[in-house]
Write the structure tokens for this entry.
Amino acid sequence: MQQQRSLQEGANLPFICVGGSSSRMKTFSQYMNELLGLGRATDDIPNICAQTDRYSMYKVGPVLAVSHGMGIPSISIMLHELFKLLYHAKCTDVVAFRIGTSGGIGLKPGTVVISKVSVDPSFHPHFEQNVMGKITAYCTELNAHLSQELLNCSKENNEFDTIIGTTLCTSDFYEGQARLDGAFCNYTHEDKMKYLQRAYDTGVRNIEMESSVFAAMCKRSGLPGAVVCVTLLDRLQGDQIDNSHEVLAEYQERPQKLVGCYIKKVFCKI
Ligand code: R2B
Ligand code: URA
């Protein structure tokens, strides 16, 4: 029965999971293989996009895990190509997740933030797409039902703090996120703290670099989408990520666990 189910769901690919790092997406596919009892040998899940350096792609049963690199342009290219692939493969009822890392604002490091909406650096809830000099603003709200289901998974597991909050999406890690430790910095510690406080006051709880276009493209294509990112540090306390490698590795498993829990629940009901 389990085997039959996995074959059926393999033909239709309901769960798209994207994340920045190629190795993290490989680990995620191995984790999902175990969690869903798909019975593949761990080292027998190949990168099916190995011919290109653009991204890595791993398929296990109903899960397609794809890496997207860093920043809006990088994820945008991958999502265009992925959505075309889903269209030509006639996939239906697809749900999309971005799992990743972020900087927290006023949160204990290791807290997982499920994005309610992604805002731009001026705190507007939209993604501006410039096409031939004409700017169109696309809505960046994430799917509320899916976000709530993910939060429920966290409550059931009760392993780490998880909240639903606003996510700030920037085009730069340093000046774009008000860091003081980049190569250039024309503002003061006080300016930085004012900006981060303003972000917090508008509901922003974490900062990362891809959620806006992910949210906008999911909405445009009608896919329910969720963004689940762990916070690696509290930006109100500093700019540098200084936890040990082991601690950071454990933090990065947290979004995978939440999304895995949700997928398992849905998969086992099918
Ligand atoms: C989180 O971490 C990366 C920057 O270090 C970026 O891709 C993101 O969104
Ligand atoms: N990713 C970001 O974009 N910012 C951080 O501070 C940490 C991870």
